[in-house]
Design a protein that fits this description.
about 130 residues; 1 helix; disordered N terminus
Length: about 130
């Protein structure tokens, strides 16, 4: 059961987030739209904070993978929501792993909180390894 003040359905794919005291909530794509993630598939979404957790932080990591694909690299991608907070309907982290056939590597965790942030142990694009 979602905590008080939260939208239990968060509006579903494509819906605008609702505002509460913690910030905007949105539907995070697990596999980003620019990477072929489906907008109309509920299993591709989790509840999350829009700014800055989803955009620009998660979107930046997705952009990294998309750029590698656009440069001709075949990528194997895994995305895992991690639920260890007090609200069982909202993951606290989104873990993203990507391995390319030409050496691309990404191993990052995006933090699903009002302040966003991410940390990476590998990000071969050369972009920042972390945002607090």
């Amino acid at each position: 059961m979602p905590s008080a003040g939260r939208s239990p359905a968060w509006g579903g794919p494509g819906a605008r987030g609702t505002y509460n005291s913690s910030g905007y909530e949105t539907g995070f794509h697990l596999i980003g739209n620019q990477m072929g993630g489906k907008n109309g598939t509920l299993r591709n979404f989790v509840a999350g904070y829009q700014t800055p957790a989803n955009s620009p932080h998660m979107r930046g990591l997705e952009g990294d993978v998309t750029n590698a694909v656009n440069s001709g690299e075949a990528i194997s991608l895994g995305v895992l929501p991690v639920y260890k907070g007090t609200d069982p309907a909202i993951p606290t982290e989104i873990r993203m792993y990507a391995v390319g056939n030409k050496g691309y590597r990404l191993d990052c965790t995006a933090y699903n909180r009002a302040t966003g942030g991410y940390s990476c142990s590998q990000r071969s694009s050369g972009a920042k390894l972390s945002v607090p």
